[in-house]
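Exercise: predict the fold of this chain.
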Amino acid sequence: MNRDKQINMYFVKKITSILIIPLLVFVLISGCSFSDEQNEMPVKVAIAWSNQQDSYSFQSTLKAVKAAGAEPVVLDMVRSYDLSYDDSGNILGSKDENGILISQAAKLVKCNTYQNSNIKDVIKDYKCVIFPGGSDICPTLYYNEQPWHGIIGDTNYSAERDVSDYLLMSYCLENDIPSLCICRGMQLLSIVSGATMIQDIGQYLESQGIIDSNMHRDPNKKIFVSHDVNVISHDSLLYKISNEDVIRKVPSWHHQIVENVNGTRLVVNALSITDGIPIIEGVERADKKFVIGV
């Protein structure tokens, strides 16, 4: 580890009172030596575009960036030239009745990634990106593509955001742009990296003969539930940042989960145990400078 990174890591470990997400943001920006030292301008951190910018998860991300001493800048939508959009940015002719990207369109996005898009106009010269939490990702974009899970209460899809995020993530990974991927962002990182996915924890546990204990999401979708997360590798970025074997009382809202990272460049850094079943709670890309999902 070079001297600058040693100093950054030492400083990070001294900030014991700060929450884990602002702490991760701090490490993200500390690992990038691109601040304007002459003008003492704050580091600008790119935030992936969302169709729900007034949501709690999105606004919390902006607050976390500011708490870490940086300036959040929300990016424009990344658009695929393989798809048709109206003047408002809505995808035309490629969504089903639930707003899910149809299989043919999803294949175009997965095959062509950012190569046929407006990514260069969107990313400009930003040098780190955060992918915030949000709604479910279209199952047609999974490496293990699936039909919709059929849960009536879970149809809050945005094909526009999914496509934008997929293209941006593929660009960031190929160009080794430091990225922090939170909640939905972690699922996205896993999907783009080729992991297999599970759409609903409850359905998955039932298939294992287990009644869902609602450990990961309030069934009424009104409050966060919390549970402990085990950091499973001392070599991981997550451990070096948190210096904890167990991160306790982690707020949780998700019901999509990463099933398997075999055959990918992802490394699992954190797990929780739900009724005896290990659930992946964190991943990172060891082949990149700083790409972590929590």
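Check your answer against the key: Residues 159-174 form the longest helix (16 residues).
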